[in-house]
């Protein structure tokens, strides 16, 4: 068997295409080939002969895996039928319906772990076999024939028809005879059998294997041909299995020799290894005997020398322990004397002595020092040293705290509160231009640095830096509370103490509660000035303390950067713990101590915590005085708010915390104050209106100052409005008036004339209640200017005050409430005119108020706030129109009354009594109308007077024209008397604006009348000359002089009133 057979086991595709199919030495050529076998002889890969030596000359019966077993029921075969043979009459050929459907069987998947045991046993053998094969391939093979390596086709190509597979090249019989000892090559087997995914139940694979053979032919000829094809196919399958079996036997035979040879070599190697181990054991026994004989003597000598040295060390150690005890006593004496620096140095030397470390500055000693830390006898000394070290650290800590706090208190006492508030204001955006001196909290003297450096050295040596910084934080918190507490009023009540003794108190908690109650009562009882001084002192002290504290922390970190490396005072005892710690971390350095200080004294954390403590205490105090704050005067409240705002901004600038708790309380107090302030102004305005007699008052200089300030607020903020924000100034100092008062154009000799107010050159005669509106308006604008954030809350309060004035005026004048409340006899046209003038005054100021508010309102609610002023203006205009309508209604009612009186007259009879006189109704009407004109001209604007009189005259024209046209005249004298009434009406009222040609219209109506009965012809009376009419005194439209004012007031009493108008209607 050749060496190439080894390759056939692992690679079935390595086939010899040079061999014919079938081999001549295995089967003899057949005597006869059927037609069907001849047709399929080239279907798979070579010529397939039929064995003639079979007894029955028929196809071999198939086994349990034959294709025929798939057919149910089984087909009875009687042998090969000749084409001439006919089928039996009882035989029925199977059809495709007789074939049951093929069910694909799921092949179970076997886990690879099942083969692990087998692989572990076969693996070494397979490795030897592979190595042998590689050696064999490397040798020259002269005998082996060269065969091309055929690659296996993929699954797609394996499914091709057998007729499409490559056909092996046929060889001559002579060549076959020369190679009789070699088996049939595997290339004769189709590639489909070598496919890894070979599954016979796959219809395509089955179709390829069966070579598309007919299963149940229809005719007898087809049936004979199908039987022949099936026989040939079964013979081919048997041939393929024999070929594979021969190749397997050849491969196993060729590999067995090499395997057993390698197994023999392995046994030789094991024997050699066993011999080597035996020799090594013998060598070790020889070396052990040599050590026992020669080395033990020298070892005994070394032990004796070591014992002598140990005795010498013991003596030195005893002397060292005595020095330790003496130094410990010296350290305790220094601590008792308060000499902490010397005690710290002595403790450092003692620690080095116990640890067996020489002094760094001394000369090298001949006596060796020993590490005494493991001695149990020094355990008690360790506790004593720890106590001394703690006392030294506490001493340095007290010195450190005293240095820091004394500097802090000294700085607070040296800075006046006004300087602190001036510094606050200098950082404010609104008062940035304020000049201030240098900041005192940044000045640090050299003595403070020296004291601080000494304290830090001691803390570092005693390892108390972290504890000292923690105690310093606590001390700062206590100092913040102390700064607040020292400015509070006393929490002791002398009267209460005289009655209630300490012995009668039940507990300490009850005593503390009583003190809290007494403190709260004393806080509420403080006056405005004392309360403000208390708040200012608390705020300025805390501000200066925080600023100084921030500088102290910076100086502290700066000093640590200049320090030398400290000597640790940690106890060197207990080496099992501390020596381990020391091995893990290096000795502390300056940078480490500075980092420790920076972490322990985190500036933002420390300052933030101090601010929180201060805000908590301050909030409690301010809550107690909430009721008193709500009733402060405006200037005091503005100062109170400004102080709180500046303090909150200062705390936020120092610590970065906004102080939400304090700001929320102050905002709540602001809103409450605005409501209380608005309610108080509403009550004051209502009381002023109720007591007003509705007489014109002089507009004084102080009123003009207020008005000028309000008008100026349209474009800028007067300095007086910001006076409350200048908290560093004394509130009692008067502020210069911003601007000059406007002159009304009248000389000083006209003191008896009421001085009017002017807005945009428009004159306003005002009553005292209207003038009193200037003060609340000025106050609200000052409040909005000083605190722009409360514009949304202050504007509704101001609008509410103005609405109160409007509604209350309507009740008193239009509703005639002044007759019951103010004691007026009746509501005259003068009162109506003064009320209209007051409304006009507010309407004229509303644009200025609107713009002043707009400059300070936020963008979010600006439209809503400005809309309130527009609504207020319309409300006042509607009220004013109602007053004007009331005047027109009164005069219309009076004209109706006079028309009724005219209808009752007999002009013919009146002419007989007094031919040259005029009627009383006309004289009364003209007098009332003239009086109304004078009153309106004196108190109202010219345009308003013209509008009102135009409406009145329009009503006159309609009524009197009908009245004159409806009079019946029987005599010319009566007609003449009626004409005189028309002439009087025209002459008295013709000069008033808005009268028009109503007089001429009435006279023409009289002229057009016809006499009903004319008893005698009388010449018509001559018409009055125009000169005579013009000679009558005109009604004054300018301001009335002092001489005529009394007369006007008397005539006003006779003017029509609201009550007369009501009586006329009834």
From TrEMBL:
Residues 138-166, 498-514 have a biased composition (Polar residues). Residues 1042-1066 have a biased composition (Basic and acidic residues). It is found in: Golgi apparatus, trans-Golgi network. Residues 168-178 have a biased composition (Basic residues). GO terms for cellular component: cytosol; GARP complex. It comes from the Eukaryota. One of its GO terms (biological process) is Golgi to vacuole transport. Residues 737-747 have a biased composition (Low complexity). Residues 1-38, 132-182, 486-514, 566-590, 727-754, 1013-1066 are annotated as: Disordered. Residues 234-350 form the Vacuolar protein sorting-associated protein 54 N-terminal domain. Pfam families: Vps54, Vps54_N. Residues 762-894 form the Vacuolar protein sorting-associated protein 54 C-terminal domain. Keywords: Coiled coil, Golgi apparatus, Protein transport, Transport. GO terms for molecular function: syntaxin binding. Belongs to the VPS54 family. This is Vacuolar protein sorting-associated protein 54. It comes from Aureobasidium melanogenum (strain CBS 110374).
């Amino acid at each position: 068997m050749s060496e190439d057979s080894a390759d056939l086991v692992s690679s079935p595709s390595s086939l010899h295409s040079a061999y014919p199919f079938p081999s001549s030495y295995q089967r003899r050529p057949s005597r006869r080939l059927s037609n069907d076998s001849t047709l399929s002889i080239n279907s798979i890969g070579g010529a397939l002969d039929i064995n003639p030596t079979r007894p029955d000359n028929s196809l071999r019966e198939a086994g349990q895996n034959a294709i025929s077993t798939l057919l149910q029921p089984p087909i009875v075969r009687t042998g090969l039928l000749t084409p001439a043979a006919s089928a039996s009459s009882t035989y029925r050929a199977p059809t495709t319906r007789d074939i049951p459907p093929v069910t694909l069987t799921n092949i179970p998947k076997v886990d690879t772990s099942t083969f692990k045991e087998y692989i572990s046993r076969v693996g070494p053998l397979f490795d030897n076999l592979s190595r042998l094969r590689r050696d064999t391939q490397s040798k020259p093979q002269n005998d082996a024939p060269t065969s091309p390596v055929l690659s296996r086709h993929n699954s797609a190509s394996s499914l091709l028809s057998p007729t499409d597979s490559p056909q092996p090249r046929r060889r001559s019989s002579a060549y076959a005879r020369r190679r009789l000892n070699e088996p049939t090559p595997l290339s004769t087997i189709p590639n489909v059998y070598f496919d890894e995914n070979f599954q016979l139940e796959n219809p395509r694979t089955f179709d390829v294997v069966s070579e598309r053979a007919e299963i149940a032919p229809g005719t007898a000829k087809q049936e004979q041909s199908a039987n022949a094809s099936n026989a040939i196919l079964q013979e081919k399958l048997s041939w393929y299995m024999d070929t594979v079996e021969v190749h397997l036997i050849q491969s196993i035979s060729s590999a067995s020799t090499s395997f057993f040879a390698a197994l023999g070599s392995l046994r030789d190697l094991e024997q050699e290894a066993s011999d080597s181990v035996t020799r090594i054991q013998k060598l070790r026994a020889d070396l052990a005997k040599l050590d026992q004989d020669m080395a033990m003597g020298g070892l005994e000598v070394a032990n004796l020398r070591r014992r002598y040295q140990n005795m010498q060390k013991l003596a030195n150690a005893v002397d060292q322990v005595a020095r330790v005890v003496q130094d410990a006593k010296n350290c305790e004496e220094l601590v008792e004397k308060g000499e902490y620096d010397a005690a710290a140095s002595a403790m450092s030397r003692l620690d080095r002595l116990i640890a067996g470390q020489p002094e760094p500055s001394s000369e090298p000693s001949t006596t060796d020092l020993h590490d005494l830390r493991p001695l149990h006898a020094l355990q008690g000394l360790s506790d004593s040293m720890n106590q001394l070290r703690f006392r030294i650290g506490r001493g340095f800590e007290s010195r450190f705290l005293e240095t820091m706090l004394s500097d802090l208190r000294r700085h607070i006492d040296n800075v006046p509160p006004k300087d602190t508030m001036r510094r606050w204001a200098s950082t404010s955006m609104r008062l940035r231009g304020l000049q201030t001196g240098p900041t005192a909290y940044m000045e640090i003297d050299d003595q403070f640095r020296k004291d601080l450096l000494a304290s830090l050295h001691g803390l570092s040596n005693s390892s108390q830096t972290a504890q000292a910084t923690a105690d310093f934080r606590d001390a700062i918190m206590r100092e913040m509370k102390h700064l607040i507490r020292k400015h509070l009023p006393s929490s002791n009540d002398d009267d209460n103490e005289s009655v209630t003794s300490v012995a009668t108190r039940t507990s300490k908690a009850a005593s503390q509660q009583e003190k809290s109650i007494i403190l709260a009562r004393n806080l509420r009882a403080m006056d405005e000035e004392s309360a403000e001084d208390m708040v200012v002192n608390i705020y300025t002290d805390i501000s200066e303390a925080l600023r100084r504290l921030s500088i102290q922390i910076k100086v502290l970190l700066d000093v640590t950067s200049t320090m030398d490396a400290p000597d640790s005072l940690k106890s060197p005892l207990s080496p099992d713990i501390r020596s381990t710690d020391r091995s893990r971390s290096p000795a502390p350095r300056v940078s480490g101590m500075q980092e420790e200080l920076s972490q322990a004294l985190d500036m933002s954390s420390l300052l933030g915590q101090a601010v929180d403590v201060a805000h908590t205490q301050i909030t409690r105090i301010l809550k107690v005085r909430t009721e008193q704050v709500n009733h402060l005067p405006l200037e005091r409240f503005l100062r109170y708010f400004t102080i709180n705002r500046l303090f909150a901004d200062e705390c936020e600038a120092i610590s970065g915390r906004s102080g939400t708790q304090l700001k929320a309380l102050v905002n709540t107090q602001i809103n409450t104050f605005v409501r209380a302030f608005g309610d108080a102004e509403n009550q004051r305005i209502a009381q002023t209106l109720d007591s007003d007699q509705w007489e014109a008052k002089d507009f004084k200089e102080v009123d003009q100052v207020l008005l000028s300030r309000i008008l100026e607020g349209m474009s800028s903020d007067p300095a007086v409005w910001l006076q409350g924000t200048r908290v560093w100034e004394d509130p009692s100092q008067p502020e210069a008036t911003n601007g000059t008062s406007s002159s009304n154009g009248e000389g000083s000799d006209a003191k008896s004339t009421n001085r009017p107010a002017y807005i945009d050159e428009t004159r306003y005669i005002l009553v005292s209640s209207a003038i009193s509106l200037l003060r609340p308006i000025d106050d609200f604008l000052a409040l909005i200017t000083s605190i722009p954030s409360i514009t949304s809350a202050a504007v509704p309060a101001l609008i509410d005050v103005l609405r109160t004035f409007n509604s209350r005026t309507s009740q008193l004048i239009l509703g005639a409430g002044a007759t019951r409340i103010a004691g007026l006899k009746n509501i005259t046209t003068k009162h109506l005119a003064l009320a209209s003038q007051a409304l006009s005054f507010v309407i004229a100021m509303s644009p200025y108020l609107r713009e002043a508010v707009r400059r300070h309102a936020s963008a979010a609610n600006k439209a809503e706030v400005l809309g309130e002023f527009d609504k207020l203006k319309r409300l006042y205009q509607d009220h004013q129109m109602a007053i004007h309508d009331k005047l027109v209604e009164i005069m219309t009612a009076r004209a109706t009354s006079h028309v009724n009186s005219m209808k009752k007259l007999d002009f013919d009879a009146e002419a007989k009594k007094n031919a040259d006189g005029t009627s009383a109704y006309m004289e009364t009407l003209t007098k009332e109308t003239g009086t109304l004109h004078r009153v309106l001209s004196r108190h109202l604007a010219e345009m308003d007077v013209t509008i009102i009189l135009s409406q009145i005259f329009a009503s006159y024209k309609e009524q009197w024209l009908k009245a004159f046209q409806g009079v019946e005249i029987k005599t010319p004298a009566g007609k003449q008397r009626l004409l005189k009434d028309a002439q009087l009406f025209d002459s008295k009222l013709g000069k008033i604006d808005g009268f028009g040609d109503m007089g001429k219209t009435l006279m023409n109506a009289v002229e057009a009348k016809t006499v009903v009965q004319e008893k005698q012809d009388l010449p018509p009376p001559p018409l009055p000359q125009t000169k005579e009419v013009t000679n009558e005194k005109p009604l004054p439209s300018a301001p009335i002089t002092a001489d005529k004012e009394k007369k006007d007031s008397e005539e006003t009493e006779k003017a029509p009133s609201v009550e007369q108008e009501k009586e006329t209607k009834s």
